[in-house]
Design brief:
It is built from 14 helices and two strands. The protein starts with 5 loop residues before the first strand and ends in a 5-residue tail after the last helix. It comes from Mycobacterium cookii.
């Protein structure tokens, strides 16, 4: 099978201090103080598929997921379980305590020990590679920051630094060290833009992700009413570098519809109490703690 790669050009990168990102609408809702927990409203889960695409656009991560022999965590074979465990990881990393993170780290490490390249793999990878884990954590941070800005508008420079520092547990809950995170928000932009130079997908990973956004893994009765919406939301939450790698088109008209949608969503969000906006994360965290108490499997 012929394999084609799509990779970004260095000339497409923005200047220092400007991150490759989605385009936002007008500022709407800002508040103090801020942390990554403020981005964990249930609306943010609409960007979940986009974040998976971002993560898998690094070849080591993409092939690690696609070739993984851990079928119990395969997104296309067990979509609901994988969705639960992914969102539980976010809940643990953002809202959990050290005991929660230690328990989840041990569970994930057990699965990651089986995720490594074989002689037939097109490239070498290992799930314990801290640089690959740093990329995944960076994608999670970018996704949550984008969601925050879509829902509440831009942050001040001070807020941005506090928000960024609060997000480090997205990586340190696994093997990422604190000193791997760029020390300032501006330096993170430089790391991100440089890392995006390595964005590349071959036909294997691209096909896997196309099946994801086409909802090939769920019942056709559920797929039909939600497939177009998921593709629209997913494409809207992706920066051009990721859209291009996956071969997704996006027009100015679609961008305006996307911004209008989140203008409405952000307005509604202002009137929802925290227990409704973030209740799902606390339910997932509670499930983790119950599983640990019973000695049940976390993933």
């Amino acid at each position: 099978m012929t394999t084609s790669h799509k990779r970004i050009d260095a000339d497409a990168l923005p200047t220092t201090g400007t991150r490759i990102s989605v385009r936002y609408g007008a500022a709407r809702w800002n508040e103090r103080p801020v942390s990554v927990a403020d981005a964990m409203d249930f609306w943010s889960f609409a960007a979940g598929a986009a974040n998976v695409i971002m993560q898998l656009s690094q070849p080591g991560v993409g092939h690690g997921v696609v070739e993984s022999k851990v079928d119990s965590g395969n997104l296309l074979k067990h979509p609901w379980k994988r969705a639960r465990t992914t969102f539980q990881y976010l809940a643990v990393a953002v809202f959990g305590d050290e005991d929660d993170r230690r328990a989840y780290r041990e569970a994930v490490d057990t699965a990651h020990r089986q995720v490594k390249s074989t002689p037939s793999s097109p490239l070498s990878y290992n799930a314990f590679d801290r640089n690959l884990q740093m990329w995944v954590a960076a994608c999670l941070f970018v996704g949550l920051e984008d969601s925050y800005r879509m829902l509440r508008g831009p942050m001040t420079a001070e807020q941005s630094e506090v928000f960024y520092r609060s997000a480090w547990t997205l990586g340190t809950t696994l093997q990422v060290r604190e000193d791997q995170w760029p020390p300032t928000r501006a330096e993170f932009d430089d790391y991100w833009n440089q890392a995006c130079l390595s964005v590349s997908m071959d036909d294997t990973v691209r096909g896997y992700l196309q099946d994801l956004i086409d909802l090939k893994m769920i019942n056709p009765l559920l797929r039909l009413p939600f497939r177009r919406l998921l593709r629209f939301l997913t494409t809207g939450f992706l920066a051009p570098v990721f859209r291009d790698a996956l071969g997704l088109s996006w027009s100015p008209r679609q961008q305006r519809r996307f911004e209008l949608l989140f203008l409405l969503v952000s307005f509604v969000n202002r009137f929802l109490p925290p227990f409704l906006r973030q209740g799902g994360s606390w339910v997932l965290l509670g499930d983790v703690r119950r599983r640990v108490a019973r000695g049940a499997a976390l993933i």
